[in-house]
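Recall the central idea of this unit: under ordinary conditions, the amino acid sequence of a chain determines the structure it adopts. In this exercise we apply that idea directly, starting from the sequence alone.
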Amino acid sequence: MTEASTPIPLPLVDPPSAGPPLADSTRWLPRARLQHFLDAIIHAGFELLGPTVDSGAIVYGPIREVADLPVGWTEVQEAGRYRLERRADDRCFGFTVGPHSWKRYLFPPVETLVTGQRQAGVWTFQESRLPAPKQAFLGVRGCELAAIGVQDRVFLQEGQCDPGYAARRAGALLIAIECTQAAATCFCASMGTGPECGPGFDLALTEIDHGFVVRIGTPRGRDLIEPLDLQLAGNDEADSAAAGRAQAREQMGRTLATAGLREGLLAQLRSPRWDEIAQRCLSCANCTAVCPTCFCSSVVDVPSLDPDTIERERRWDSCFQHDFSWQGGGVIRQTIGHRYRQWLTHKLATWHDQFGVSGCVGCGRCITWCPVGIDLTVEVPALLGTAVTAGDSA
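Accordingly, the structure predicted from this sequence is:
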């Protein structure tokens, strides 16, 4: 079907950080007091997670000190290329996004669902419900905040709520960082997800030369920051922060036109372009692994050396895997072209039918981390028969 459809709003369980920013909520955090801010998060009982440099990339991991952050580092990204580069200053968040997304903490790559034990020849099974960690995510970009909102629609639907995700989500404190620069692979402005952060954050920081403008999004965020007794941000600081966000919007190296995109893609299901893409695609699933919204998974039973114990695990999976579409004794999507078509049309078209939003937030990870540099901002216009100008996609 290629007819336009109107997505039906889904009845969702309210995420813990929903709602618009609070009134009179802008504060000024001097750079010299950033460690005090980190200490306040840790002392509130949160495991602090944020960006850090490891193995030549900026990834997410435990943070305790300012020195753990990528101070003075930035990234250079292009289709199929990523490298770190030194900045001319000591910005703590002077980069965009690396290969990790916050999905790995809310929807872990491997999760034990059920454990089984055999006693006297009788098997008993019990759900595995570990206590949800109390975690603070430091450095959530606008596109990532939107991605968490997308996954909320997947996992927090009323009547279909995933208990593990819901527990981890409820314990997560979202501290956003609003972008003041963009990578060549960024196109969040096209998707309406950045560089400014939309609703959903507890606190949102914009880094400027001598500190951070802090927006308070929830009472929980206010409770965390009030003991620091920060002053209200002045007009100069607020103007500098706004100018930085505007600069990031102008720096974006890619765009994606979204008007009529769903209908256009579904009208091109038999385009020869799919086979042309397939000759380049390795079907490696890198794009789905780094994507902050992809949620495909499989469930497997894992035996142990103890014949009386077994576990059932949920693991990340990908529609690019050959046997992912196996059913009724055979694989439905036999070719790489079929699998790429499934991924792209689901992400940009039928996701709207399922969840009322796009499955793409414009973070550009799938472009950067594709080994052969396949770029959806190039492939979509090619499929639709529209031109891409030099300014739209490098």
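Residues 261-306+318-384 form one domain.
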